[in-house]
Amino acid sequence: MDLDKNSPTRVLSTYEVARALKELPSWRERHGALVCAWEFPDSREAVDFLAIVAEAAERQGHHPDVDWRWNTIFLSTTSHDVGSEITLRDVALATLLEFAAADSSAVAAPQRHQDVHLGIDTRDPARLEDFWIDVMGYRKGRDGDLVDPAGRNPRIWFQETETPNPNRMHIDKYISRSGLEHAQAELEASAGTGDRTHEPSWTIYTDADGNRVCLCTSDGEQPPALD
Q1: What pLDDT sits at residue 34?
Q2: Could you give the percent of the chain with pLDDT greater than 70?
Q3: Closest Cα partner for 76 from 19, 16, 34, 113?
C-alpha cells in the first residue's frame, strides 16, 4: 500500500484494513481501531519502549492510546477527527511501531488485548440513548454505539429485539480469535462449554441467575440477539 499517494486522513475500507494487517502481525482490528499488546522481560524495558512510542507519535503527528501494565504495553490507534475510523496515518503509525518492536525485546501478545462492552436489550434504542449519553457523558459513535470520548470505559450498544430478555443487560467480551480456545478452556470449569452455535464469532455463557456474557472475536459478525 503506497501511503504517500493518499491523504493520511482517508478512511480505509474493510478490505484495505485487512490487507494492511497482513503486514502487521502484532496488530488486530477492533471497532474502528488498530490494537496490539506487547510484553517485555521487565517493566524497565516496557518503559523504554514507551519512549519509542512517544517519539514515533510525535514524528507522525498522530498519537495512540497507551496503557502500561508492568511489563506489557497495550496500544490502540484510531482517527477520532474522522469519526473514530482507521485511516492511512493509523496504518503508518502501526507500521513504524511494528518495526520498532521487532528491533526490541517485545513479544506480541494479541490475546492480552480485550474489550468489554455493555449490551442492553430493548425494543426501541432511540428511547434509551439520551439517558445513557447524559448519565455516562458518552457520545454516539460508529455503528450507533455509545462511546466514552476518552476511550477508557466500556462502550454501550443496544440489542434491538421484540423479545427482550428479563435480564436486559449483558456483557460482550471481545478477545483475539487466536486466544479463543484458551479463554473457553479457562471458563469451562465454572461456566461449562456455553452455547457455541456461532463460534468463533461468539459463544454465550449464562450464570446461575440467567445473566449472560457473550465471548466475541472480531470476525465481522454482529453479536447475537439474546432473546
Answers
A1: 95
A2: 93
A3: 34
Number of H-type helices and E-type strands within the chain: 5, 12
Grid coordinates representing 31 are: 471497532
Residue 3 has pLDDT above 60, yes or no: no
Which residue has 484458551 as its cell numbers? 182
Q: Which helix (H) or strand (E) holds 94?
A: helix 88-102
Confidence (pLDDT) at 144: 86
Q: Report, in angstroms and rounded to the nearest whole number, the Rg of the chain calculated over CA atoms.
A: 19
Whole-prediction pTM value? 0.76
H or E stretch at 118: strand 115-122
Q: Which residues of 24-60 are buried (b: 16+ CB within 10 A; e: fewer)?
A: bebbbbbbbbbbbbbbbeeeebbeebeebbeebbeeb
Q: How far apart are CA 79 and CA 68, in angstroms?
A: 21
Q: Which three cell numbers stand for residue 32?
A: 474502528
